[in-house]
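Hey team,

Filing this mostly as a record. A colleague (T.K.) asked me to run one chain through the structure pipeline before their review meeting, and I want the input and output archived in the tracker in case anyone asks later how it was produced. No errors, nothing strange. Just documentation.

Input sequence:
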Amino acid sequence: MAPLPALLALSLATAAPATPSPEVKARVEGLLGSIHGPVSPEAFRAAGPGAEEVLSEVARGGGLPSRRIQALAALAGLGGANAEAVHREVAASVTAPSAVRRAAIRGLGRLLPPTAAQQALAPILERDGDPAVRAAAADALAAAAPVETCPRIRARARAEAEPARFARALKACDRSRGGSPGR
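Output structure:
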């Protein structure tokens, strides 16, 4: 049995996320400000310890929606439990801008396995008050679990005042074998 101080040190080391240095924070902020297209997850990993924490803070924060969206995309590329938790939190936020919530939903669709994606995103598809957010959930579901969710997506699209918002998800369903194509 390991001595108590060693166990305590081990639990503290594994439980606390890395605190980013000012240099790491500056590197991550610089990558988020890149105007030369998407930045790879490897570039964020290479920024140093704590880069994921900086991305999480930006994604959760009240800053520019475009930066929050980039941070969510980077977190989705990095993966992991923290990325999933941040995406869930932002997707459920009633105060986050619609575009930021949609980015969180897209990220969840990439981060979660099909069954978990259905459990997380189907309630958003069915009950969210923002039609653009419902359409983002449809897109993510059609990509993550088309066979299981396309009938539900088609039914939701038929119930929408503007079913054209669901065109991308419906096309993805038609390309897959996700239920009958009849709308």
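Quick notes for T.K.: The CA atoms of residues 59 and 68 lie 4 Å apart. Residues 1-15 have pLDDT under 50 and may be disordered.
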